[in-house]
Design goal:
The protein has 206 residues and is an all-beta fold. The protein contains one helix and 13 strands; from the N terminus they run βββββββββαββββ. Strands 1, 2, 5, 7, 9, 11 and 13 form a seven-stranded mixed β-sheet that branches. A six-stranded antiparallel β-sheet has the order 3-4-12-6-10-8, with no helix packed on it.
């Protein structure tokens, strides 16, 4: 994903581990995994549901670290669809985050959420892919969701691709989404995020 820095100048990386489901990619889609500009990206071939665990680690290692001095978050972008709604879905455990942010006019369907899971279902129709996480159009904001992960070093997300083709799930640690969906204060992050996004490690757990 991107490389981040503590106030003390210690770099950390974000690793995405496949921890549930059987991974498949389209013929050309495997190359979509990794960095795409300022975004991290995970490609899936549907129909499938895959679980990924995102973990903060000491830069260049697999040693987990906790950002005790900093607030941080993870935003999922471009949850759009095909002609029918529900082409893409993400599901997260409520206990794994401190709250989420969507726009007041979000296009994401959250009505299937449960007491323990927050579920976000894509609307019908496609939205242009974002090119900068901090320069989103209103339409791009409306198909994105930001999670507050202050005090946490990891985050588990289930990605569902209900189509018969390839879909890319896009994420980053910053985004211009400002209207809270829940009564949880948005963290005022002092992270310095390199625009060049130094590293994304994608691993399949053996």
């Amino acid at each position: 994903m991107g490389r981040h820095w503590h106030r003390g100048g210690v770099a950390v990386d974000l690793i995405a581990d496949l921890t549930g489901g059987t991974y498949q990619a389209t013929t050309t889609g495997l190359a979509n995994n990794g960095l795409s500009g300022s975004f991290g990206q995970l490609h899936t071939k549907g129909p499938t549901t895959l679980e990924f665990t995102f973990t903060l680690v000491e830069a260049g290692t697999t040693t987990a670290t906790l950002m005790t001095e900093e607030s941080w978050g993870l935003t999922m972008f471009d949850l759009d669809g095909t002609a029918a709604a529900g082409a893409e879905q993400i599901s997260v455990n409520k206990a794994d985050h401190n709250g989420y942010t969507v726009t007041a006019s979000t296009a994401l369907d959250t009505t299937t959420s449960t007491g323990t899971k927050d579920i976000f279902l894509s609307p019908a129709g496609a939205v242009d892919n974002p090119s900068d996480p901090n320069q989103l159009t209103a339409a791009q904001q409306n198909v994105s969701v930001k999670f507050d992960l202050a005090g946490k070093n990891g985050f588990v997300v289930e990605f569902t691709n209900s189509t018969n083709g390839g879909r890319n799930f896009t994420f980053a640690t910053s985004a211009n989404i400002d209207t809270p969906a829940q009564a949880v204060p948005e963290p005022s992050s002092s992270l310095l995020i390199l625009a060049s996004s130094a590293l994304l490690l994608y691993r399949k757990r053996q």
